[in-house]
Amino acid sequence: xxxxxxxxxxxxxxxxxxxxxxxxxxxxxxxxxxxxxxxxxxxxxxxxxxxxxxxxxxxxxxxxxxxxxxxxxxxxxxxxxxxxxxxxxxxxxxxxxxxxxxxxxxxxxxxxxxxxxxxxxxxxxxxxxxxxxxxxxxxxxxxxxxxxxxxxxxxxxxxxxxxxxxxxxxxxxxxxxxxxxxxxxxxxxxxxxxxxxxxxxxxxxxxxxxxxxxxxxxxxxxxxxxxxxxxxxxxxxxxxxxxxxxxxxxxxxxxxxxxxxxxxxxxxxxxxxxxxxxxxxxxxxxxxxxxxxxxxxxxxxxxxxxxxxxxxxxxxxxxxxxxxxxxxxxxxxxxxxxxxxxxxxxxxxxxxxxxxxxxxxxxxxxxxxxxxxxxxxxxxxxxxxxxxxxxxxxxxxxxxxxxxxxxxxxxxxxxxxxxxxxxxxxxxxxxxxxxxxxxxxxxxxxxxxxxxxx
Length: 454
What we know:
With 454 residues, the chain is α+β, with helices and mostly antiparallel strands. Helices cover 20% and strands 50% of the residues. The model has no long low-confidence stretch (mean pLDDT 87).
């Protein structure tokens, strides 16, 4: 065995033996003192040593019993303190307000899957040295024109490319006004036609002729040309003769035209005086120099732009965008900040939905009028009277709608001013945004507060 380890063991044995000896000596000393005291008491009194020992035993038992009782009492008190502390803790826990969940929607990106729309009748815009006509209604034609002083003899040349859509007519017009005009058209299938509207009637000058123009399957860039001489014209496409006829109306405008559901790029137009070779009008749409009117007619359009959700609508109805991931329930507070941009006086604002047939519309108009409307199974069961709040929209100021839902009642506020309340006829699930008629609204921040479900 290791010598150092053996020394440690012997030292520990000596330490414990000496400690035990001290304890025995102390116990022996205590007994000797007690016996000496009992002996003196027996000599000082008439009691025998046995009687003194009995009394000593009795007193010792009493003291030990009292000590045990005291220890037991301390234990019981400590136990009661623990029990009452636990009860108090549970009472505090049970009375603590439930945890509140805060959901923020800043509208800086579409992480909550809002509905995105791009429904339109037509769009006209300049892009990549072209004037784009994007038309979206079957059976309708759309045009843009510029007024010119036409001489007796002139040439018109138009270059265009069909982009996509259906094979409908597109090209150019010579107009007296919107009620009287010539239309020189071609289609992406390679056919060409011409017609005139005069005295409210359309007259087909030349029926559709296939193979006169370049089609999509070939080179679909086409050049239309019209040579006008002393009231007569010759119409060609890509140098191919189509037909010739007499100009039956006075001409004051040149117009670009597209019909039906298709997208066309007009790339170059040139009109010259054929006698003097003077350019009357020319445009390659790099820097458009005509009195063109690019515009769009939107049915509904929504987009995330510059940290806001822009929702634009047209026509005599209401549209909405919803985000089913933004859940609410019958004990929620919803705050929506928005800015009316342009349009007519019509309803817009916050929707509280069970589904698309059952909802509550918290409506607002740009003059500050507000109300609640309830739809149940696609029937309006409550239409509140408009309340004047005094918070008129200017196109620059932000308004705040707040809805508090509690105890099956909906409370509606605008800029913290109470507007209206109504009973809640169904459970709520998620929120939406609603815009009606012809207007554009910027939705800028949405907050949902609700209790956490255990």
